[in-house]
Amino acid sequence: MKISPDDIDRIAAGSAFLATGGGGDPYVGSLVAKRALSEFGDVELMDLNDLADSAIVIAVGGIGAPVISLEKLPNGREQDWALEHLERFIGKSADALIAYEVGGVNSLLTFIAAARRGLPVLDGDGMGRALPEMQMTTFSIHGVNGTPMVVVDEHGNNAVVTTCDTNKAERITRNIALAMGGQCTSAESVMTGALVKKVSIPKSITLSMEIGRRLRMTSNNADEFIEDLRELIDKSVYGVVEKLLVGKVVDVERKTEGGFDYATIVLDDLEKKERGQMRISVQNEFLFAEQNGAVRASVPDLICIVDSETAAPITSDRIRYGQRVTVIAIGAPAICRTPEAIAVIGPRAFSIDADFVPLEQLTQSDS
Amino acid sequence: MKISPDDIDRIAAGSAFLATGGGGDPYVGSLVAKRALSEFGDVELMDLNDLADSAIVIAVGGIGAPVISLEKLPNGREQDWALEHLERFIGKSADALIAYEVGGVNSLLTFIAAARRGLPVLDGDGMGRALPEMQMTTFSIHGVNGTPMVVVDEHGNNAVVTTCDTNKAERITRNIALAMGGQCTSAESVMTGALVKKVSIPKSITLSMEIGRRLRMTSNNADEFIEDLRELIDKSVYGVVEKLLVGKVVDVERKTEGGFDYATIVLDDLEKKERGQMRISVQNEFLFAEQNGAVRASVPDLICIVDSETAAPITSDRIRYGQRVTVIAIGAPAICRTPEAIAVIGPRAFSIDADFVPLEQLTQSDS
Predict the structure, then answer these.
(1) I need a surface site. Which of A189, B78, B189, B347 has the fewest CB within 10 A?
(2) Are residue A8 and residue A144 in the same domain, yes or no?
């Protein structure tokens, strides 16, 4: 399938939804991506099954606190530079690119680099959502070392990082991101085609585009959108879709520290007042929702927030007091719920003192 | 001149003195260096004038807060790894190594790598002392970009950093050092022989060795040592030698933050009590000494502290309440006192609100 500039807004909107609050605000990224496609031509979105097993695949994306990107504008060449530096370092050229997460910005950076280079972008990613740290990709969980990895900033400063394990790479590159002003762009996780087919979330980019298509219908409200969403998710690798809450944001306690956005969001429940307030914990992404002492949804399952009136996804850096929002949860793909995955992306990996309980079990006990 | 294991303790002791409190505690570094020379043979200490103009020279040293190195033991291979990674990245092999600063550890790391590789070490360095940040070398002040630069830790994690300017490299590699546990080892500042002759402090390693020889005479006390020191410094590129104070450490306020050791040292003046207390400001190194509102010595001039009884140099990470010490100042080499240099290594570069006044002028106005 060819991706044209018109598709970019759909991918951005749907990705911003699946990104559970993280992955970057799509506005600037969309402008840069549409311009790249206009200038260099459409980009092939390739199904994982169509990729040669011997192909070299490189993951591209942004690193840093999303709130920074609202003010720190990109140069537009970062992803090309990162890719070129990594290719030079490994002595091989990429045959295809993949996003390491689905995100309003992070789904688009691959297209920017791919347009300029005439490469295909794979229809899949390494998280099926956004998550804050690089050892949290399905690539890394399945043993792919994220390094050698290149990080660059908008001035062309760059570093090639090679480490014994991806946890260390995360600490090093997070600190480099801080030195680069809080955000940078990376190329990483060199994989063969055979490997990437085993360790990716398939079809997450077309799913984003389909979700985005529904989101961009002007007559939408959140309830109608949820019906559309159920239909799309039913045909995907994701699990159940649940409307967790229709409410109002009454408090956002926020700090940016160590290269991450942290927040606690407090919501009044406008439909079922007797349930009390919902609290959502944030590290770049919406991670954990509890209400009246009960867990409502937990990472790696997806917690997504949209405007109740328009169904527009709200990213964690844009959430604020007074917004009328609908909180939606989606079961994570099975590959993200294995014991190996839960050890790295379950609630305890974020210092949340709770075991992971799948969304469908929480919902059953609640009814 | 051939450097044998017996010379290492002398170089370490003299370097620890010239390092003005920084550059690392020499104990562990000396053990590693002596072992490397015992295993791989003596190392040629080469006069800068004997170096071919076309030679490739690489600077090697440690980065981080000195206090960390008291507990974080090296692997012993870090400098070799850093050198190898940088050589592979630039596609050239080093013909000689140079220390980027004189320091109890940083003068020795070159010898460890040189022994294993059979390379000469140049008799000179890029500071004529130790200073806390990498844009503060005479290399950088004269326009040499410190990058591409490699940093490694004791586990083999490493990064190749390339930047537009050395200030950015300093921020990035400092943050990498933090992610590596507070300390790492670097290879950087690739130069030709012709260039290194113009931008180095010459003969600082033989000067360290000669100072170390006097320091290691067992009958020494600080006053005798100062007489020996005057004789050696008179024949060097450095300026005057002054005894600033004989005193007692009565307070050390210390913090390790952002990858640096910061401290303020307060000393009672035991010889001239009427002068009041001396305060010395520290960022890894002893930077600025004032007494009773008057500046006594200021970076880039050297402020060195030795034990009054034994003349043993005291590094900033070892200074503590109750020590009887003698504070000695030495005029910096002329290359460190140019307006270009003062902009980067004068007191204002360390947020000290004072103009640089050369030691010899301070001393005159004082007498």
Answers:
(1) B347
(2) yes
| A136/B354 Cα distance (integer angstroms) | 49
Distance CA A350, CA A64 (A): 17
Where residue A263 sits, what CATH number does that domain have?
A: 2.40.390.10
**Which one of A156, A163, A171 has the shortest CB-CB distance to B164?**
A156
Are A97 and A43 part of one and the same domain? yes
- Spell out, as residue ranges, where chain A has pLDDT lower than 70: 218-219, 364-367
For residue range B149-190, list pLDDT tens digits in order: 999 999 999 999 999 999 999 999 999 999 999 889 999 999
B224 and B108 co-located in one domain: no
SS3 B27: helix
State phi, psi for A346 to the nearest 5 degrees.
Answer: -80, 175
pLDDT tens per residue, range B51-91: 999 999 999 999 987 777 777 788 889 999 999 999 999 99
Domain count for chain A = 2
The answer to whether the Cβ–Cβ distance between B157 and A168 falls below 8 Å is: yes
Q: Which residues of B63-93 are buried (b: 16+ CB within 10 A; e: fewer)?
A: bbbbbbbeebebebbbbbbbbbbbbebeeee
Q: How far does the CA of residue B134 sit from the closest CA of chain A (Å)?
A: 15
Co-location of A34 and A63 in the same domain: yes
Name the strands in the sheet holding A302-307, side by side, starting at the edge strand that comes first in the sequence. Answer: A294-298, A285-291, A278-283, A260-269, A241-257, A324-330, A302-307
Phi, psi of A260 (to 5 degrees): -125, 155
Q: Is the dihedral of CA B72, B73, B77, B79 positive or negative?
A: positive
CA distance A104 to A106: 6
Q: Are residues A286 and A339 in the same domain?
A: yes
A77 CB near a chain B CB, below 8 Å? Answer: no
What backbone phi and psi angles, to 5 degrees, belong to A107?
A: -75, -20
| Residue A113 forms part of a structural domain | yes
Backbone angles phi, psi at B230, to 5 degrees: -55, -45
Contact residues, chain A, for B169 at CB < 8 Å:
157
Chain A residues lying within 8 Å of B176, measured CB to CB: 159, 172, 175-176
Question: Do β-strands A201-202 and A121-125 pair in parallel, antiparallel, or remain unpaired?
Answer: antiparallel
pLDDT of residue B366: 52
Length of chain A: 367
In a domain, A207, yes or no: no
Nearest by CB to A155, from B164, B169, B174: name it: B164
Q: Could you give phi then psi for residue A253, rounded to 5 degrees? A: -100, 120
pTM: 0.87
Look at residue A303 and tell me if it is in a domain.
Answer: yes
Q: Which of A161, A176, A202 is the last residue of a domain?
A: A202
Asked if B172 lies within 8 A of A164 by C-beta distance, the reply is no
Q: What is the C-alpha separation between A99 and A122, in angstroms, rounded?
A: 8
My answer on whether A328 and A182 are in the same domain is no
Q: What is the total residue count of chain B?
A: 367
A88 and chain B: CB distance < 8 Å anywhere?
no
Q: Which residues of chain B have pLDDT under 70?
A: 218-219, 364-367
CA distance B159 to A159: 6
DSSP H helices, B118-255, are 138-141, 166-179, 193-199, 204-215, 222-234
Residues of B in contact with A172 (CB under 8 A): 157, 159, 176, 179-180
Which tokens in the block code for residue A270? 């406008």
Range of the domain at A236: 219-366
Q: How far apart are CA A332 and CA A328, in angstroms?
A: 13
Residues B43 and B186 in one domain: yes
Residues B300 and B181 in one domain: no
A89 contact residues in B (CB cutoff 8 A): 89, 160
Residues of A in contact with B89 (CB under 8 A): 89, 160
pLDDT above 70 covers a percentage of chain B that reads: 98
| Residue B158 distance to chain A (closest CA, Å) | 5
